Amino acid sequence: MAQESNTRYVVRDIVAETPGVSTLRLSLVNGSIPKYVPGQFITVYAPELGTPEGKAYSISSAPHEKTLDITVKDMGKFSHYLCSRKVGDELEGSLPYGYFFSESQTTPLALICGGIGIAPMRSMLIAAARETPRRNVALFYSNRTAQDIVFKKTLDELGEDTKNIKIFHFLTREHADPPAINGRINAKTILESLGDAQPAEFLLCGSISFVRDLWRDLRAAGVPEEKIYTEAFFSH
Amino acid sequence: MKTNDQLCNDVTGWLYSDTVKDHFFHPRNILLDEKNYEADGVGVVGSPACGDMMAVWIKVADNGRINECMWRTFGCASAIASTSMMSLMATEEGGMTLARAKRMTPEAIIERLGGLPDRKYHCSVLGHLALREAIQDYEENYGARK
Question: pTM for the complete prediction?
């Protein structure tokens, strides 16, 4: 599954999610959607910015949805370029790629993310609710403030409508009203929330420091290396 | 005063650890003559036009464990050190099973290196993605187990 480039996407819609965060809804030029697995990403290229290197963006839509979505935080020259695209604009990118997904259909999942790291988790949650509703999935999502929570309405609905999906919000820069939790995500809270954590797999997505700290915390708490999947991005 | 390794583990650290320097100056399992090397699986990721490129060759023993993991990169010191360490981790103590090797993470590689500057994180991703591709190539060639 080598990563293919030179794929042309068309921006079909743009959705403002939270201040500074937008979802670009894409399709291929012919209107179709390439196959992908929740957790995969596409690499987007913008040679007009003067750099040949692309940047990877996790897919936030689920495979059954009508568009292939990437959710972008406007935090630099490249992401600002993406957030400034208009409906009908074309983008150069790769086909979906990556291995950030559990190969099991049954193990309990702990999805742990910070900020825009929610993007691949949305894809996994929407797909799980539809394809494997009996699977236990818990989302542990950290943000600075309640205003920063991306996909809040969708997450609330998933938590209310799907018995085996649990949503835990953590706020680090303002008081959190229950059931949201004050402070940073930590292994102790995750493991206590899961109950029997032994069979669970843990997927971490966020800034490099967020993923590194939680990977270390989970390892120190006794979670085996092979139970942890990571996806990290440079954010400063 | 902080040691070099402590500085590398800081969020703001930018120095290379002694382990990174060792693997950069003395890379393990580097393959310079792939024409005369018969691998069970090959993985190539990246492109020279876009920066780094990485190739990984693996051999798998009859017990399903990786007994050789060779590599070559067009990349920086961090890519060389990360992939050298990755190749060591994949083959030490009798070699990883393919299932275990698929679950090797950049964080595990970086931990063994004594840290990497955040800006060099992607260098460790390249090696483990190439390993993943080599395992996939092996499984396509031989099935899930040899």
Answer: 0.92
